[in-house]
TrEMBL record:
InterPro entries listed in its UniProt record: MAU2 (IPR019440)
GO biological process, alphabetically ordered: cell division; chromosome segregation; mitotic sister chromatid cohesion
UniProt keyword list: Cell cycle, Cell division, Chromosome partition, Mitosis, Nucleus
Organism: Mortierella alpina
Record's protein name: Uncharacterized protein
Amino acid sequence: MTQLDKAKARLRLAQILFEETESVERCEDELNRAITTVDAIQGSMALDIQLRLYDLQIQLFIESKQFRLAKNTLKIALAEAANQPSFISIKWMSFSQVYCLTYLLSGICSKADMTQPMKAQLFLIEGIKVVDREFSVNDHASATINVRRNQRWFSLLMMSMLLHLADVFLLKLELISVEETLLKATYWSKVCGMWDVFKWRISLSIGMTMHLAGRLEKALDWYGLCLNHSERAQQDQEGFDAKTLAIINTALIYCGERYYDLGKVGDLASR
């Protein structure tokens, strides 16, 4: 039997003792023996078993209420795992985050169907109400790192919901509702310090609204803003898509009677 096999056998025995008996001391003893065996093995072969040993050790520390030791062991395990190319870090979402995300995904899926804009609208509006409530809760909480992270997460979610809702209203040709939703999105992006992240997307949506309303001069201005902003978002697929759509819509205006200018259409083709 190799040293690695011995370590695996001791780990399995420690797991059985932990799960099936109340013998914490025996479990800890087997675990320490397995750790000693693994420490003597060189190379990456032992890493998987080592991380599983850390996992069981953390569970033992938590069971015996040695939380500081559990935290320190977790830090060591993460540092070891981070050196591996296959390392994956998982952060569990809170119940409220999952709840809000469900509304967003349901709204997006219904919007993508194209035949269910009303269903998408209902999901997104309800989701926005829930996120609004989460902001109220966070506003009254102490300004810890966790709360700040939560606020940023919900800010991104709110912006995504508002922009998808604007798209739904655009599909339904409810242009006044589109403008109101985009105004709220602009306000939120400014308040949350995310204007630079979303300005090209908002500019495109406003341009399309103006275009459908026949306000072509305004549409050209907003498409121009979108093109300027999306230049800096080329590494982002959405930024590239927005730029392409803004170019096509601008070209359509310059191909029409009111602003007919094939020279400008040619300039757009080279962008």
